[in-house]
Design a protein that fits this description.
binds zinc ion, 9 helices, 50% helix, 223 residues, single chain, two-stranded antiparallel sheet
């Protein structure tokens, strides 16, 4: 069972006090998606993972905290435009606003994960173009993070497995092969290897669908 609670919080930027939903408890039944999205019931708590101040539009996982740079970013044109972008669901805009703040802070890894969550919010709202754009954004942010020498996933080949899923689900099939080869050359553990082979197979079929880790294993067993 998921249990939610109400939490009174003071906005880090403007100081306004509002009540936000918080997860008191939740659970996971089944397997995560290939991009790490958790199964139910945690999956459906996504609307509690990000907060937006109704007064100043500051978006953050914890509205009462944040980096100093956010004070400036929330007033920028890019941020304000993203906050009200009607081509994305409201929930995705919140994650994408947080991504802008984290990118401004120089934390491209967290910014990339915020963009991934925006894609999940788009998936749930059947906003195909928003999901595609969010995944492209995540790929760009993760590649920048790597360029700066910071990692966004732990384990040999794990970053390539995440990138492969983002590329494939946003229809960039030609890049999946290379990124999977790079991951396989790192000599990853068996599970990551299975996932990379599965991604290659899906990309060759031009499949943009959502699959779980369990389905990757079934694919390997059925070979
Ligand atoms: Zn505020």
């Amino acid at each position: 069972m998921t249990k939610l609670s109400d939490q009174k919080k003071t906005c880090f930027i403007c100081g306004e006090i509002n009540v936000y939903k918080a997860i008191a408890s939740t659970n996971r039944f089944g397997h995560a998606d290939l991009d790490t999205r958790p199964p139910e019931m945690e999956r459906s708590t996504i609307h509690c993972w990000i907060q937006r101040c109704p007064s100043c539009s500051y978006c953050a996982p914890d509205i009462s905290d944040g980096p100093e740079v956010a004070t400036k970013v929330v007033k920028s044109d890019d941020y304000l435009k993203q906050g009200d972008d009607s081509s994305y669901p409201e929930l995705a805009n919140k994650f994408l606003c947080w991504a802008i703040i984290k990118e401004a802070k120089g934390d491209n890894s967290s910014a990339g994960w915020a963009a991934v969550k925006a894609a999940w919010a788009c998936d749930d709202a059947n906003k195909e173009s928003g999901a595609k754009e969010s995944r492209k954004r995540a790929v760009a942010l993760f590649e920048q993070a790597r360029g700066y020498g910071t990692s966004f996933a732990e384990g040999l080949g794990a970053e390539e497995a995440i990138l492969a899923d983002l590329l494939r689900r946003s229809g960039q099939f030609d890049k999946v092969e290379t990124v999977c080869q790079d991951g396989l050359e790192e000599g990853p553990e068996a599970m990551v290897k299975t996932i990379l082979h599965f991604q290659q197979s899906l990309a060759r079929r031009k499949d943009t669908g959502c699959y779980t880790v369990a389905e990757a294993v079934e694919f390997a067993d059925g070979k």
